[in-house]
Amino acid sequence: MIVVVFVVAVIVAVVEEEEVVVVAVVVVVAIEEVEVVVVVVVVVVVVVVVVVVVVVVVVVEIVVEVVVVVVVVVVVVVVVVVEVVVVVEVVVVVVVVVVVVVVEVVVVVVVVVVEVVVVVEVVVVVVVEVVVVVVVVVAVEIVVEVVVVVVVVVVVVVVVVVVVVVVVVVVVVVVVVVVVVVVVVVVVVVVVVVVVVVVVVVVVIVVVVVAVVVVVVVVVKVIVVVVVVVVVEEEVVVVVIVVVVVVVVVVVEVVVVVVVVVVVVVVVVVVVVVVVVVVVVVVVVVV
Fold first, then answer.
1. Which residue in 60, 104, 145, 255 is deepest, having the highest Cβ count within 10 Å?
2. Which positions ≥6 away from 9 have C-beta within 8 Å?
3. What is the pLDDT of residues 59-104, one digit of tens each?
4. Which of 196, 222, 214, 195 is nearest to 42 (CA)?
5. Residue 70: which residues within 8 A CB-CB, separation 6 or more?
6. Considering the entire predicted model, what is its pTM?
7. Which pLDDT tens digit goes with each residue over 164-208?
8. Cα–chain-centroid distance for residue 220?
9. Hey, what's the signal peptide range on this chain (predicted)?
10. What angle is formed at CA 220 by the lines to CA 243 and CA 224, rounded to 5 degrees?
């Protein structure tokens, strides 16, 4: 704006000191002030929109992470309950084995008592005792062998069940952790893509709006200067010089505004991407 004032003042001093040209300069300065206000309002609106979008995206990401953590906790609780049930089954099997051993001991005691009675009666019936002892010993051996086989089978079954349950629990936990990590990574990637797309769209809209505003301001300035100078006095040289100066200054202002807007948007995109990457790393470490 100051450059325009000085250039037009020099032109007025060199070409011709006309009050009408001074009036045209004042009008151009006023129009430039309006342009500055419009550009500032547009930049403020864009920054507010970008901040709101980033806040919404971060809140959605936090909610998704909380839901994932709750799902993991529920799965872990279910796994713990299954392990408790398996332990109860093992306790029941142990009790059954103890009962079988007690029964075996009772049978042995009975056999011993019978043998004592037989020994007392050996003088009376030697042959009968021999037969009875053989039968009883054979029966006791058969019973003992059956009990041992049953105990071994029960122990093997219990071990197999425990191993299978442990393997299933480990597989379930690994699958749940992998699914949780994949879901978190997918959600974060989608959020980053949405934020980048929104920022790019906002940048395009801002650049288009600024370009339109600047073009309208240039046209209005040129029309005002031409009309004022032609109505009062037809000075073609003055008109052309003023128009060229105004157009050059406006083009410089447009380039400066566009560069500032692009830098601000790039900084916002970089900050959003860094925040999202940090959140992903934290979630993966926690899981």
1. 104
2. 25
3. 887 888 788 888 888 888 888 888 888 888 888 888 888 888 888 8
4. 214
5. none
6. 0.44
7. 888 888 888 888 877 877 777 777 777 777 777 777 777 777 777
8. 51
9. 1-17
10. 65
Locate 241 and state its tokens: 């010089």
256: tokens are 């400066």
Token digits of residue 190: 């989608």
Structure tokens at 26: 């004042």
In the chain, the amino acid numbered 172 is V
